Amino acid sequence: MAPIRRLKRVAASQPGFLNLKSNSGAAGSPGGRRKRLNKNKKKNWNKYSDINDVEGFLADVRLQERTTGGLLSEKSDESLFFLDAGPPKKAQLRVVAPEEKKGRNGKASRPLRIDLILQHDSLIPPPKDVLAYQLPNAKKLRRIAQKAEQLAAKGVVPRRQKRLLNRQPLDGTAKKAALEANNNPERAYYDIWNQESKDTSDPWYLQQTGKKRVKRPVRMNEKPSVLPAVEVIAPGGSYNPDFFSHQALLQVAHGVEVKKQKEEDKIVKQLAVNREHFPTEETVFREQVEGLVEEEHEDDAANEEEEGVAVGAIVVAVKKTERQRKKERAEKIKEQRRQAHRVRSDKRQQLFQLRSIKTSIKQQEEDTKEKQIKRKRNQEAQKAQPRRLGKLKFQPQDMEIQLSDELAGSLRQLKPEGSVLKDRFKSLQKRNLIEPRERAKFKRRLKLKYVEKRAFREIT
């Protein structure tokens, strides 16, 4: 309906158009009634507002910008008009554009229509990407550049430039010699797979650019344990071992089990109740009559109160006389002199004990060396033992051993025992590579609900 109404409005605006309807009811007629409109609401703005002239003007402006690159009113006459001097003469040479290609006859070939369709025909330049021109910390960099210009105007050299000027120049002879060696066909063979890489770059440049390798700590090259990754079992653990080797391994396993049994017996003994602590008939009778006899307790309480009064009495200090204080002072001075005389006499006696003192010092040094050797021996032994890395203590794996009647005569009759995965896991713990762990306990959050299915209910 909107295009039809617009078409009628355009036709009615023509000078030779005659309206068939009477103007008696028109809004502009003197006798007609004007239509009352409410333009306070936004929905009535486009409905009852005529903006065709504005849209036409904007469309004309966009067309001029696409075709000529701007408004025609702003263009010069030389860019819009040219002087027609007649047809060109044959002698004049036609200038061929570099984009045009010549065919076989020497004439310029026209571009394909598909290329013309895809060609950009608008003279409006594409909008600039603002983000492409933005730089991170542009304001800060601009401020730094301005400050550098001000310092350069004053003759002040920046710190970085001072470092570059203070650097020692590199020796150019070594570089020249290296180039000569590379150009020499008789130079030594260079192994590209060699792991040793010689760092010939400038150390200052490597340090400033962050390309210098960090020195590896010596402690990281040491292994956490001296134990091998795979421990070889004793000869008695073979599928067909020697009798004595098997008996020796059984003896070791027996010692392990005896040690475990002793630890269990020790725990049971500690948790056991002593027979002296068991109640007797006398203790049971005392507990039963507790609180019935009160006279003895009252007498004991009265005696304790009297003792407390006697003990808690205030003691008045007796004031000393001048003679007593002088006597104490003299005794104190005598005691100090006596102590000093004893120290001097001990030092004089030590002069005659030099031989025994030297002997004692030598004995102390020997004891210290023995303790150091013992401490080193213990440290070396501790390297082969698992350390405490977590809250759990390392528990060694049970020995996998067969009794004499369980030995197999051949590999076909041998039964596999143990787990390779568990053995490797225990080995990692024993070599201090991972901490001892235990299996997480599964705790069900919700209770299981048993439901009887319909099929089972029909059968029962």
Can you offer a commentary on this structure?
Strands 1-2 form a two-stranded antiparallel ribbon. It contains 17 helices and two strands. Strand 1 (101-102) and strand 2 form a beta hairpin. Mean pLDDT is 79; it is low at 16-31 and 308-313. With 460 residues, the chain is mainly alpha-helical. Helices cover 48% and strands 1% of the residues.
Secondary-structure topology with pairs:
Layout: H1 2-12, H2 45-48, H3 52-68, H4 77-80, E1 101-102, E2 108-109, H5 113-118, H6 130-133, H7 138-154, H8 159-166, H9 172-183, H10 203-209, H11 243-271, H12 281-288, H13 295-311, H14 322-351, H15 354-383, H16 420-430, H17 454-459
Antiparallel strand pairs: 1-2
Question: What descriptive keywords fit this protein?
Answer:
460 residues; mainly alpha; two-stranded antiparallel sheet; 17 helices; 2 strands; extended
